[in-house]
Each structure stands twice: as C-alpha cells, then as structure tokens.
C-alpha cells in the first residue's frame, strides 16, 4: 500500500508502506509467468478433492458456504446476508473453536514497454515478468459474545523494504481491523440494528465495499494484493487518490451506525492518528515515521438507502470525510493540509443460481487547502510544496461483474482521475542537471484513465485464479510523452496473473 500525506495528490507516493517492488535477477519474464500457470494448475488439481471443508473463519462459524455471504464467491463483495452478518457484529452462528483463517497470493506481471528508462532496466522495472509469493494474511475474529465480534487482519508483504545494500526483506503489520458491538431490535413494525466500531480505516466499516474495498489502490478489483500495475516500478504507479482512501495505515477511528428496516443506513465516526494506545492499529509503522492527523475529531460520515426485492438488491449513498495532516509529520506542529472529501456511490446485485451480476459506482470529489507556508514562494522552509493555495481531485471508479455457477467470472473496471494542475505537487522530478527523469509528470496534473478487464476461475470456493489487464488511455495528463522523455501511457499497460487462496 502506498500513501502520500506530506504532498497530497502526487502521482508517485513519497510515503511507502509494504509496497511491492524488488530488483529483478532474471530476464526470462514470459517463462516465469508460464511456469506460474503450470504450478497453479497442478496445485488446484491437488486441492479440488478437498471439497468445501476448507473454508474461511466466518463460513465455519455460520455453517454457510462462502457464496452465502459473498456475491458469486467474490471476497469481499457482500450479499444481503453478508451485510447483515457484518452489521450484527460478526456474531451470527456459533463461536468457532479456533477463530483463525489464513490467506495468501502469488502473482506475476508483465509491463508493455520497458523503454525509455534510466539505463538500469532492473531498477526501472523491478518485478516485470517475475513469479513470486506476494502477500499473506492471518485473520482472527468472529463471534466473541452475543453482541461483540471482530474482523482482524495481520498481513505480511514478502518484498516490502530494501536495506542500503540492496537486500529485500518482508514487512508485516496490522491490516484491516474492525471490532464491533451490535444489537438488533425487531417487532412487527421495525427492524433496527445499532452498533459501534473501533477500526483503522475509513470505509472498512462499509458493508457495500464500493469506494474503499481495501485490496486495490488502483482499481475496483477485489484481488487482495498490492497495486498490480505498481509492479512495473516507478513508471506505473497508482494514480493520485483522495485522503479517505489513503488513511488505512495510520488512522484509528470510533464509529457508530444504525440500519433501519433494511432500508436506511447512517454512520458517523471520528479518526485520529493510530499511535500511543492505538498503535496496534497501524500497519507496523514506527511513530517516528508516521504522518500525523491533527486532533482526534477528523470526521467521517455515511448515508445510504438500500432496497432488496426478489433476487435483486440496490443501494445509493453519500459519504464524506474531513481530515487535517501536519506537513511536519511525524512532528505535530506547523502548517497543515486540510482535506474535504465528499462522495456518491451505488451498487446493484442480481443473485439467482447459477447467475450473479453486480455493478458498483463511486465518485469522490476532494478539496485540498494548504496553510500559507506550504505554497508561499517567499517562505524558505516550505517553498516547493505547492504552487496553488488549494487543489481539487476527482476520483471515479466503476465495475461490472458476471459470475456463472460461482466459478467462472468476467469483470470490467474503470478508474478515472482528474485534478487541478500544480507544477510543484505534480512534478517532473528533475535530476541533478535539471533534466526530467523518465517517471516524471511533465504535464503537472494527476489526470489518469485506466480500463481493467479481468477473467477469473474459482474451482473451489477458497481458491481463485485470475488474469487482469490494466489498459492506460491517459497517464499523468497525457496519452503520449507524459514524462517529457518519450514514454506513452500505453507503455504502462500491464498484464497481471494471480492465484489467491484462503483457509
């Protein structure tokens, strides 16, 4: 995951947590991906006879198949039953004897073009064509009492950080965390669910998973791995994203919610830095390196109207967040950047065996305002952060999916990012001689547009194999020569093959 809180909105993040990048030691990329396919098919052939007893923690607790909670078996997209399970605090069913589950992903990528570059192909495209173990998670949770339940995830990234000698090492830390208290009041006139949550990510509490699924920083896919296109190295970074999608590694929140008659949903929350007593909620980031939220009341809110009828379900909603980040982070003094995010979203599902159809939409408009010191060119301490006193960022995500027999699926996603031009926030990052480096932004905008088709196969409910393709029609404000050094948006097109498993 990447987060850029000190210079918000930059296309290449400056604060990196558990990102996927490693130096390549092989030139045989296509051979590696071929070998991955062969190994995956062999593994699946061995696992198929295990049938359905190999299921994650909540399925063991409720006695239900995974497709009861997840639309077409797509984790984490929830069905109506799955939303009810989460809203009632993960307490339905019997407490599991061993409330643990595990998940892992292996993947390989291939970027369309490796030129032009800095002259060091391995450094410029560190994972291109490699097959590797990507990430693994341990889950703890489920029913604690009749009213209290937990979703806790601890994640290990295999290639997360590099020492001065160039050796790579893994990184682990708290990932998504959602500890809930919930109660339900039912009579002939009403069905009311009320609850509260301690969590570490605005949106992790959301039961529709439209704007912040927690698994893909670049697109609306549900693959539980780091940004697929980011495996291309510095050339193919995730586009700029609103702060509401970036706070997961460093935030701690307390939220309260209600759901009335399976129709009206309302939620409010307040977030602060996940340090001191809340340090267990951060993604293993030392306090000395952590960007700092100002105060304890950075508000988040969510409203939604839901309607279920027959095999259909639909939702329309609004959400938003205000947050303020210290520019001197990790220190808590001096100028700040103030964010105001307002979004709209919708979801539709049709689930009737053997067919599952779903569609999601989310749009976020962000206003960023900077303390005078951050954009005033006469201030020698902060000159160079921003050329404007304020900027805007617009983030659109769309996704449509069809799944047959909860096994064979296709989807099409789209990401569109636009924003204010800012010659300092979106910079071409000149080298020591004043020349732009190849992964720069010569247009000084975050404008990026990506289409993401995918095909996937779920031979058993806890194994998924998929192939995504990231097609860039615009990157950093242009379809051609976006870096001022001859690289085109289409050069970043990336094929991403993965296998995902959970038990």
Provide an overview of this structure.
The protein is mainly β and 503 residues long. It has six helices and 18 strands. The chain has helices at residues 29-47, 57-62, 66-69, 80-87, 121-124, 372-375, and strands at residues 2-3, 15-16, 100-111, 131-143, 148-162, 168-186, 191-199, 251-260, 264-273, 298-309, 312-326, 336-352, 355-370, 390-404, 408-419, 448-460, 463-474, 494-502. The radius of gyration is 22 Å and the shape is globular.
End-to-end distance: 23 Å
Tell me, briefly, the overall form.
globular
From the 3D structure, determine the CATH topology: Porin
Q: What is the helix fraction of residues, given as a range?
A: under 10%
Biggest sheet character: 16 strands, antiparallel, barrel
Detail the poorly predicted runs: 1-55, 214-232
The average pLDDT value, as a whole number, equals 80
CATH structural architecture? Beta Barrel
Q: How many separate helices?
A: 6
Total beta strand runs: 18
Strand order of the largest sheet: 3-4-5-6-7-8-9-10-11-12-13-14-15-16-17-18
Number of domains: 1
- Beta-strand content bin: 35-45%
What's the CATH first level? Mainly Beta
Rg result: 22 Å
Structural class: mainly beta
Order of helices and strands: EEHHHHEHEEEEEEEEEEHEEEEE
Task: Give a brief outline of the structure.
By secondary structure, the protein is mainly beta. It has helices spanning 29-47, 57-62, 66-69, 80-87, 121-124, 372-375, and strands spanning 2-3, 15-16, 100-111, 131-143, 148-162, 168-186, 191-199, 251-260, 264-273, 298-309, 312-326, 336-352, 355-370, 390-404, 408-419, 448-460, 463-474, 494-502. It contains six helices and 18 strands.
